[in-house]
Design brief:
The structure holds 2 protein chains of 2 kinds. Chain A is mostly helical. Chain A is built from 13 helices and 2 strands. The radius of gyration of chain A is 26 Å and the shape is flat. Classes of the chains: A mainly alpha, B mainly alpha.
């Protein structure tokens, strides 16, 4: 049974073949295949079709890997040529001077700006999004819940540029009061201190809020799907033991959905880190490190790329590609870490069973 | 008479003391009153603050009353319920505001002229002009990206679920699909820029933008398709294999049709994600004010890029056009959604439990 399949398979990758055989035997035992090999006609066409189809599907998987490798490789090539022309230290310089004569640029300020805006967004968005997801899956009346789920799906599709437009033309004027209030009562926390109170709130904090609103629907949509998949039996068992609704959610729903919650947040974080247009419309950029998040200062990597791209040539473009590489590496690390957490939690969730 | 008394006695001894059903409503009213009093008393001008105070007060009052009458566990339950409601209402505000602003500001701009004319020869402080060129660009770029990404994505998902369960290649692919999900749109744009435009020395075209969009779309298609294929019951595969049907026919005739609704929905979500991508279009398609039907030659425009350029031109007239563009963009996304949902429902296997 094993041998003819091997010859028909592509010689370059023997591994998916073994996987297929084991998957097939896992699915149906070995008897169907034995039966098929005795039916010579159907067996032949089926085997050729199998080979082609498997080649196509594993080829697609490999193509995906190749794309990822190519992204890293091409960005690195351009980034190296840019960094070698850099007169400053790429990691510790805050400035971004690619037009000036000694070309000086570094990602210190924009990397920190990226992290700050993403952290603000996550702190606001994740709890609220989980609340909405629970509301839709477990609190709202059934009819309303369906409609709401639909609305959230639609909102997840609202493009980022629309949120950016809204943030710049609606939210920024409305944030002046909030900023003054935060500065007055929470200025002692350092991060909410304003160096120049009353300035236009085109700040990283405002950006964080816009990003939070943007990633809300995504986190909600994904975690709601997970919460809806929780086996009814688990929930009913918890309720039958006398748990209140919250205890049922804490003991049955959340443990089941934990890996889903993390991957939902990860999706949101990825979008927040790399979000370009919403930041570009709202923030007035400056290349300084400033941890007072209410001040109109700082910039993000993605915004720098979008803002500077039009006026950059040659090395300037390569410098932006270097910044893009940093963003790529950051998102890679974030996603990798989230992935590891999910792998460790998998045995509790039962989502893969 | 006596039996009635015993049952009521029994029930009261068997069940815990509960708050009456009208109590939350009373507490809500109380919290609202207090908030109004505080707001008026301290002369707080902004209404959102009043709302916030009311919400916090409601949660506190509800917790206290419930803790006194029912005990801590139920009190916590009420707090959780209130928090969930508050989260929901809190999130609705900005989302409704975004939609309301877009619709109210955009609807005044949209007319037949806006939809059928380009920005060719329209000065920035002049009214009129339109987004026909952007609409064409968006449709073409998204269609090309979908044609590239959907087959590869679906086949990759088939590989992950049907062939490569747990082997090294599938683990690597699965890992990098996750990583790819997090690749920011601007990085995908930079990749195509460095590969396609700087190294291969290709011009800025709609096709270059479509390549970047395809990269963004790919992981979304793979993930959603994979989830859907996993939901297909193993019994279906076993039944088909047991009848002697080859594996690839089992996949194409049994597994994929069963999951088709979900796959279409996934592809639709992926399309909806890329329709609004601005950054790669900004870098690769470069933008144009004139109509360019050919995605393989010369710069095009696209709806999100139209919104961005009109916004950054900064005049009242151009920002009005930006709102109009935003509304059309949202409408396109919604129409795509509705059509795909319709297909999903129409193609769904009959009698499936959903």
């Amino acid at each position: 049974m094993e041998t003819p399949r091997d010859t028909s398979a592509p010689p370059s990758d023997p591994q998916p073949n073994q996987g297929a055989a084991s998957a097939a035997s896992h699915l149906a035992g070995s008897s169907p295949q034995r039966g098929r090999s005795s039916l010579s006609d159907g067996g032949n066409t089926g085997r050729r079709g199998d080979a082609i189809f498997k080649l196509a599907s594993s080829g697609s998987g490999i193509a995906l890997l190749v794309i990822m490798a190519a992204i890293a490789a091409f960005l690195t090539v351009r980034a190296v040529s840019a960094i070698s022309a850099d007169h400053g230290n790429f990691l510790t310089t805050s400035d971004w001077q690619t037009q000036a004569d000694p070309i000086t640029f570094g990602i210190a300020a924009i990397a920190i700006g990226t992290l700050i805006s993403a952290v603000v967004a996550m702190v606001i968005a994740v709890p609220v999004a989980l609340g909405i997801a629970l509301f839709i899956s477990h609190y709202a009346p059934r009819r309303i819940a369906q409609a709401l789920g639909y609305v959230v799906d639609l909102l997840a599709a609202v493009p980022s540029i629309v949120f950016g437009l809204w943030g710049a033309l609606f939210l920024v004027p409305h944030m002046i009061g909030v900023n003054a209030w935060l500065n007055q009562y929470f200025g002692w926390t350092y991060i909410f201190h304003q160096n120049e109170p009353g300035t236009q709130p085109r700040s990283l904090f405002t950006v964080g809020i816009v990003l939070a609103i943007m990633i809300l629907p995504i986190i909600t949509a994904v975690s709601r799907e997970i919460f809806l998949q929780v086996p009814r039996a688990h929930e009913e068992a918890a309720l039958a033991l006398g748990a209140t609704r919250w205890e049922m959610i804490r003991t049955a729903v959340i443990p089941f959905g934990r890996s889903g919650i993390i991957s939902a947040s990860m999706l949101g974080l990825g979008r927040a880190l790399g979000e370009t247009m919403a930041v570009a419309t709202v923030l007035s950029p400056s290349y300084v490190i400033n941890l007072h998040i209410l001040d109109p200062a700082g910039s993000t990597i993605a915004q720098t790329i979008a803002n500077q791209f039009g006026e950059s040539q040659g090395t300037g473009r390569d410098a932006l590609i270097a910044a893009g590489l940093v963003l790529f590496v950051i998102t890679l690390l974030v996603n990798g870490a989230a992935r590891l957490i999910i792998a460790r939690r998998k045995e509790y969730s039962g989502a893969d069973a | 008479m006596s039996s009635l008394a015993t049952t009521s006695q029994l029930s009261s001894s068997l069940t815990e003391r509960r708050l009456p059903r009208w109590m939350p409503a009373v507490n809500l009213a109380l919290a609202a009153l207090l908030a109004v009093a505080i707001g008026a008393g301290f002369n707080l001008s902004s209404k959102p603050q009043w709302l916030l105070i009311a919400a916090i007060l409601y949660v506190v009052i509800q917790y206290v009353t419930s803790a006194v009458v029912e005990g801590r566990r139920h009190a916590k339950n009420y707090v959780a319920t209130s928090l969930v409601w508050v989260a929901f209402l809190l999130a609705l505000l900005p989302l409704v505001s975004v939609l309301w602003m877009t619709i109210s500001k955009g609807i005044g701009v949209i007319n037949a002229n806006f939809l059928t004319h380009s920005m060719n020869g329209v000065a920035i402080n002049q009214e009129g002009g339109g987004l026909y060129h952007a609409l064409i660009g968006t449709l073409e770029q998204v269609a090309i990206a979908s044609l590239l990404a959907a087959p590869i994505g679906i086949l990759t998902a088939v590989y992950l679920v049907e062939y490569g369960r747990g082997n090294k290649l599938s683990k690597a692919v699965s890992f990098f699909v996750d990583v790819m999900t997090g690749v920011p749109s601007i990085v995908a744009g930079l990749f195509i820029l460095s590969f396609w435009i700087i190294i291969l020395n290709m011009p800025f075209t709609g096709f270059a933008g479509a390549l970047a969009l395809a990269i963004l779309m790919l992981p979304v298609v793979v993930r959603s398709t994979e989830e859907m294929l996993k939901l297909v019951p193993n019994e279906l595969r076993e039944a088909s294999l047991a009848l002697g049907v080859p594996k690839w026919l089992t996949i194409t005739r049994v597994v994929l049709p069963t999951a088709l609704g979900g796959i279409v929905t996934g592809v639709m979500l992926a399309v909806a994600r890329i329709v609004g991508e601005t950054a790669p279009i900004l870098m690769l398609v470069f933008g144009a004010d004139t109509i360019n039907m050919d995605p393989f030659n010369n710069p095009q425009s696209s709806l999100p890029l139209f919104v961005w350029t009109e916004y950054s031109r900064g005049t009242d007239q151009s920002q009005a056009r930006a709102w109009g563009g935003a509304l059309v963009l949202i409408a396109v996304v919604m129409i795509l959604n509705l059509v795909a949902r319709g297909i999903a429902r129409w193609k769904a296997p009959k009698g499936a439990t959903r």
